[in-house]
Protein 1
Amino acid sequence: MDPDDHVCLCFHVSLRKLRNYIARENPPVPSRIADCLGAGTGCRWCVPFLVRLHDQHRAGEPMDLPVSPTEYAARRARYRKTGERETPDGDPGTTPTDDSPDGSPGGSPDG
């Protein structure tokens, strides 16, 4: 994904904005990334991707999402239609709940 591609499609939050926010603010838990223009609080499709960026930052790794914007948007469209999500690696995943133990934002797929 290129830096100017949107990770949060609901609120048009780019990978560049998220990288800068995470590097500057060093959020202690992934859910605090929502403070960056509301990322992850709309349909919640991007939540696993936000968690991945947070994990990469905490591990001292470059923050990147190896998915094309076209595939990302297609996967989100499937999620919006079916409510079934895929993980950032493309594997079937689950919808996080509000009481996620890792502190990540969660909730119903209806947002």
Protein 2
Amino acid sequence: MLQKAILADVISPDTSKEEALQRLDELENLVKTFGGIAVVKVIQKKNIPDYKTYIGSGKLQEILDENKSNKANLLIVNNLLKPMQNYNLNEICKKHGIEVWDRVDLILKIFDKHAKSVEAKLQIELAAIKHMGPRIYGMGLELTRQAGGIGTRGIGETNLQIMKRHLKRREQKIKEKLKHYDQIQASHRKQRRSKDLKTVSLVGYTNAGKSTLLNALTKKGVYVADKLFATLETTVGQLYLPSSGRIALLSDTIGFIQDLPPDLINAFKSTLSEIIDADLLLHVIDTGDPLYESKILVVEDILFGLEVSDKPKIYVFNKIDLACGLDVKNISNHFSDFSPVFVSCQEKKGLEELINKVEEKLAVHTVHQVL
């Protein structure tokens, strides 16, 4: 069944119109990536979201009334809902045939849909368990009420404990399995170091063109789609360095996005280990995106959280064929600390200059390691 969604966002009154629309546009793109369509988009300006239902009661009733003609079966809130907010919203909306997801629910479902490897599926399940865990409180509360109310030791309390134990056991099993994959990847990285193979990792906001760039530089043939989170698994290709006649390994990893929850980042730690161990990072930027500067900050913030923000880095301004009136000189001056390169993977422009800069950076990095 096609998912028809109402998108709702609660923002502070001082949020600019541009940022407010950008937030909802990104949420709509996530819905499209999942395979659904947005039929209504709602923005509510409040200093503090409603304690019980996140969306204010008046606005929520407006949404439900409007939906009589739109017939959406999903309400997606563009933030992380607290367990009781999620519970209360679902209790109200299910009477109208509407299921409630928050932003993390949607991202997890996209991940689950796109995951191909066993490792990626395990990572997603682990993130889902961590996201679901706190919500058991609300579910358990309702079960306890059904069992006879507060002060009784009924079936609700028993079911709550069973669910908690089940998730804890499952979480432990997943972590043990993921440790096995960690060991395999660590072994691969050790072999590379023993062969003195330099590693370069692509990072960037989701849909910036990292996989297309990997294909252009290595002819790896990675799946490319105009969708958010098209790549979940790590792919490694060989990058030929003509000046030295050597090979470097170029890896593509999951794209980043604003408000990416820590549990999701932690679940993908083994995938992101390619970034952590890389000798050089290529930060790929969609130059055609009018909000690319704010997305650079999002990526840099996540890199800081991974403790890799000080690694040697090249800013790769991609999709220059789609950027109108691009001020290359001004951008180059502004980001001069990151050796900016301007490329078009589609038109094969700037790739030779990029490879030359990669060689230069790796050579400097090697000298610093020796010293």
Protein 3
Amino acid sequence: MENVLWNIALILVATKVGGMISRKFKMPEVLGALVAGTLLGPIAFNLIQYDDNLKLLSNLGVIFLMFLAGLETDITEFKKAGKSASFIAVMGIFVPLVLGTLCAFLFFTNVEENIFIGVILTATSVSITVETLAELGKLNTRSGVNILGAAVIDDVLGLVLISVLLASFGREQSGQSLATTLLMVGAFCAAGVLAIALLPKFLNKMTKNIRPNPAILTFSLAAALLVAVIAERFGIAAITGAYLCGLLLSQINHKEYLLHNVKAISSGFLSPIFFASVGLEANLNGVNSEVFVITAVMFAVAVLGKVIGCSYAARVFKMSHSESVQIGVGMISRGEVAIITANIGLQSHIISQEVFIPTIIVVILTTIITPILLKLSFSNKNTARLDTLDAQK
């Protein structure tokens, strides 16, 4: 127990100091937290071992981070972004899938493995983007809302894509048919839409004469965890369930009270552990020159695939050049979604360890560069420079 408490204390101090240094250089605090985790892990000083205790807190951290993002989202703007976010999600999957599969043929000849490499690169993990957008005060801009909406849809479409491939390759993970998987995903999505549309009115009636109190906070946190569990049972990522629960509760009377308290728990304790864990998990064992080449190509596809696909989709919906770039950049980070997908491929014997190691490195690299590129894309100078392209037309 002593060791666990020491590790948590060290992570909290290191990530906070890293965040303060990062802000000094006019970069998002999350970047400093990521670097702090890397320095504490096996790549640098190896002061902390990533164990089950930290993994649990890290998982809670990302769940509450996405719950907080849902609470902070303007539901009216989110509804407006439905069509554009859907198309952005589709293009953000299609372009990396095609590019990733084609580039894989430069190194491997197995068709199944190459297609699955493309699938790995379609993943999007928006947790780092959410924190950066919140720091920049851009969460409820048109770009921010479209990024969040597209990421949720991306998660569902990515699950369907993996299910189709596993069924096609005869590698079902749980023994359930593709039809059953699709039915469960559809049922969860339908239930989520209905809950967001109908439940807030009922909850507001129930709490109309109740003043904000700790009981409301406790029940809300429990609801976020419960919906996250239900999402996983239906085969969807827990973070998507937590985000949808946040969207639902963003419409209740006591939203501001919840926001204040959930932010204290998330930003002050759990989220720093999640950000640090990305660096703590990094390990360069088994890395050689060939792995570096494969990693470089995968990283290029991971970045360009999302930027090209999502930016193009945003332009189709008449968004400005600056908004299009912001959306493309915001979808770059892969995070735990890509790792989970790669893990499924590894366990199903579709991909080899030679592919799994570059995937982990690409996850770390995309996680680190996303806040940097987001900061640059939202800077007034770059926004003005990109929007002059619209004025010239």
Protein 4
Amino acid sequence: MSAKRDYYEVLGISRQANEEEIKRAYRTLAKKYHPDANPADKTTEDKFKEVNEAYEVLRDPKKRTAYDQFGHAGLNAQAGAGPGGFGGFNDFGDMGDMFSEIFEGFFGATGGKSRRGTQTRARRGADLRYDLNVSFMDSAHGAEVSLEIPRLEACDICHGTGAKPGTSKKTCPNCQGTGQIRMAQGFFSVMRTCSTCSGEGNVIEQPCQACRGEGRKRNIRRISVKVPAGVDTGSRLKITGEGEAGLNGGPRGDLFVVIQVEPHPVFAREDEDVLCEVPIPFDVAALGGEIEVPTLDGHVTMKIPPATQSGKIFRMRGKGFHNLRGLGTGDQLVTVQVEIPSRLNSKQIAVLKDFARLTGTETYPDVKTFRDKTRTL
């Protein structure tokens, strides 16, 4: 077995080299000898391992001191040293970052820049939902309503930072601002979220007393919302930017107002059409005439032709709801219900008896048809 080369010689640096010089030399050689950069040259794998071994020792002050005093023999006394001179998982924080730089340099991910020191990422605020009851008439004509929305607002004391005024967030000492901890051995590594900063990359040493470090406080927001004509139960109005405040300078979420239309004592709705039942007197149904009909825009007069039957539907064009997509306006469908007098005086009874004697089955075709169908039962 050949003797190991001097680690300073391997990296091409002097024994007085500082930490930055050691790291710079390692970057250059690791990129040069990495197997992925030299797939046709198998000898580079041994050189790559030798460079890693030298860097792992010289980057660590304790290991470097032992090596400077006793050479390779001094490293054999280091507890926990594994094959090839690599220590346990906890020794691999910087190595992991270096590997990231190397791989990113090969594949062009970030131009060789390390993730160390990245800023805490901004996060968008949550969307909110508000269930709004509107009257039938407001759903037809539109309305402007005032809403009180409980939501998280940026703290007015710390301005959303979560830190006590006069202080600021600090880079997480555990992950060095990356938000992740790399656990690696050999060429295999696993990333996990930093438990100290919960993946934020920063920690608050002196939290704001007003928001307890959250950066947001719950307040009541009063806003005015325009309900467009034509909304129906289930319609959703999106109010951009009226949701909860974001974190770390992130944008606000949105507010979604979900419509619930209250029932009306006279009208009903079917798509864009308005439905309405109107009772008419017996004599108007028989002789014809005019009746007053309520609509979304007030009362109008409608003509009833003679011999109108109960259940007859009349269509009033353009008296329905506006289509939200601008596809026109619905109609109003009026169903007439013929009402028979519930109380008659003696004169009225006498007249009706005379009328009955003058009419035959031809006057009531439905009655005649029914009798013919049921005659054999």
